Amino acid sequence: MNSSTITTTALLLATHTLLASNHLAMALSAPPPRAVVIFCHGSGDNGHGAKGYVESVAPPFSVSALEDAGVVFEYPSAVPRSYRLMGGDISSVWYDRIGGMDPRNPEDTASIEPSARQLVELIDEVVERRGVPRERVALGGFSMGGGIAIQAAARTGGRLGAVFAMSSYLCEDSRVWFELLPGASKGGAAAKDGRCRAQDDGETNALMTTPVFMSHGEEDDFVLPSWGEQTARRLREGGADVREFERIPRAGHEMIGEELSRLFDFLRAELLDK
C-alpha cells in the first residue's frame, strides 16, 4: 500500500468518524417526541412490512405530518410461532387460533399471554427510552395486530394515549370478557370501577380509561364487520371507552387511505391536541 492510498483511507475514516459523531450529537440534542404510536402488524407480516404498508396506503404526507408534529411510529414484530391455520407451520403471528377464524371458536389464551406481555413491556420501555408519558403512547394495529393491542391494553394499568384496532375482533369466550373486563360478561352491570382482577395491584384497567378507535371495511369477507362490531359493543358494555366504530365503504380486509386518515385524525386529537 503506497502513501497516497494510506492518506486517502485515513481521510475516509476521519470523515466517517466525523459524520457519525455529528449524527450522535444531533440525536442526543434532539428534543424527545411528543407522542409514540406502537403499530402492530397483521398475521404473517412483521414490523418492517407493516411500516411499508402504512406508508404506502396513507394519504400523501399524512405520516410525515404527524412525524413533523412530534409523533414517532414504532412497528414491533411478533415472535414467530406455530400457527394452526397454516397446518402448524411457523408464522409471524401474535397468537394462535383454534378451529378457524369464527369468533365462536375458543380463544387460545396461552399463546396470547406472551405477546401481550411483550407489548406491555414495550410500552414501559418506550416511556423510558423516548421520554414520553404513558398518556402520550398509543397502542394498536391492523387485523390480528389490533386484537393483540386490545389484549395487551386489558393487561396493563393506567391510562394510555389511545388504543386502536382496524379489522379486528376478539373471540366470544375471550379472557378479556370474563376476567380482565368482567363487566362485559354481565351486560355492563359489573366492574364499572375498572378494577382488573388479573392485576395484583388493582390498578385501573387501561381499557377503561383510554379512548379506543375501531374501524372495519364494509366488504371484509375474511374478518366480518359484524365480528368487529360485536367486539366494540361488548367492550362498551364492559366499560371500555370505545369512542368510534367506523365502517369504511368499499374496503375489504385491508387498510386504505380513508381509514388511515380517520385514524390519524383520532390520534392527533388524543395525543397532540389535549
UniProtKB/TrEMBL annotation:
Mind telling me which SUPFAM superfamilies this protein's record contains? alpha/beta-Hydrolases (SSF53474)
Q: Which GO terms describe its cellular component?
A: cytoplasm
Question: Cross-referenced InterPro entries, in alphabetical order?
Answer: AB_hydrolase_fold, LYPA1-2/EST-like, PLipase/COase/thioEstase
Q: Which residues form the Phospholipase/carboxylesterase/thioesterase domain?
A: 27-172
The answer to keyword Hydrolase applying to this record is yes
Pfam families per UniProt = Abhydrolase_2
Q: Where is the signal peptide?
A: 1-20
MF annotations from Gene Ontology: carboxylic ester hydrolase activity; palmitoyl-(protein) hydrolase activity
Q: Which UniProt keywords apply?
A: Hydrolase, Signal
**Highest taxon of source:** Eukaryota
Q: Which family does it belong to?
A: Belongs to the AB hydrolase superfamily. AB hydrolase 2 family.
PANTHER family membership: LYSOPHOSPHOLIPASE-LIKE PROTEIN 1 (PTHR10655:SF17), LYSOPHOSPHOLIPASE-RELATED (PTHR10655)
Descriptive protein name: Phospholipase/carboxylesterase/thioesterase domain-containing protein
